[in-house]
Automatic annotation (TrEMBL):
DNA-binding stretch(es), residue numbering of this chain: 28-47
Record key words, sorted: DNA-binding
Protein name: TetR/AcrR family transcriptional regulator
The keyword DNA-binding is assigned to this record: yes
Organism superkingdom: Bacteria
Ranges for domain HTH tetR-type: 5-65
InterPro entries given in the database record: Homeodomain-like_sf, HTH_TetR
A Pfam family assignment: TetR_N
Lineage: Bacteria, Pseudomonadati, Bacteroidota, Sphingobacteriia, Sphingobacteriales
Transmembrane portions of the chain: none
Length: 209
């Protein structure tokens, strides 16, 4: 751990690795320092509290998700599902964060506010994506009232699939877990897809091994 840049990066990467392996609640500065073969003070110099370290991970997750959302993608439901596939694989790298999220939202008011603001932004983005898919003929045209539960189900699936994968015993099988819950998302969209949209969904699902 020779300089500030590499030290900070080493701490973050090792913390994420240990959180994913053992759970956020069971990894503290002492455990992290032992794994890194360093003193606790070398960690708290960069991250005075565990919340500071978790905040760093949250910001990295948000930034990487934003980068995925801003990429150009294929048209139609195929492109929409490919985008979500990239998001799911990215979320998997931060799976411990999602598993500890309810507790952290209760304990960190500032983070909770920022997180909920982010949810509103992502919901607006998904609404726009679905409206585009309707206009392009991939989804049926529904009233705002009828579209609301679909949007809610898609949003919940995107937020909670890692918790479900843990309960279902799939969390240690990255590809299988991601594919399982993408299939569920595709199943939801199938209910409101046009024939062209259904063909797109089938094309996407055929890419799974």
């Amino acid at each position: 751990m020779s300089n500030k840049i590499s030290t900070r990066e080493t701490i973050v990467n090792k913390a994420l690795e240990m959180y994913n392996a053992y759970g956020v609640e069971y990894v503290g500065v002492r455990e992290l320092a032992k794994e890194l073969n360093t003193k606790g003070g070398n960690i708290t110099y960069y991250f005075p509290t565990k919340n500071d370290l978790l905040q760093e991970l949250a910001e990295r997750l948000t930034a990487s998700n934003s980068e995925i959302l801003q990429r150009s993608k294929a048209p139609g439901l195929y492109g929409f599902m490919e985008m979500n596939k990239a998001l799911y694989f990215n979320q998997y790298q931060y799976r411990a964060f999602f598993l500890s999220l309810p507790l952290w939202l209760q304990q960190n008011i500032a983070f909770a506010k920022k997180y909920r603001e982010g949810l509103i932004t992502r919901r607006k983005l998904f609404t726009q994506e679905l409206e585009t898919l309707v206009n392009e003929g991939y989804l049926l045209s529904l009233s705002a009232k009828d579209m609301e539960p679909v949007l809610g189900a898609l949003s919940a699936t995107g937020r909670l699939w890692i918790c479900e994968a843990t309960i279902d015993g799939l969390i240690d099988q990255e590809e299988k877990a991601v594919h399982t819950y993408l299939r569920r998302m595709a199943g939801l969209l199938q209910l409101i897809a046009t024939e062209e949209g259904k063909a797109d969904l089938q094309k996407f699902l055929k890419t799974f091994k």
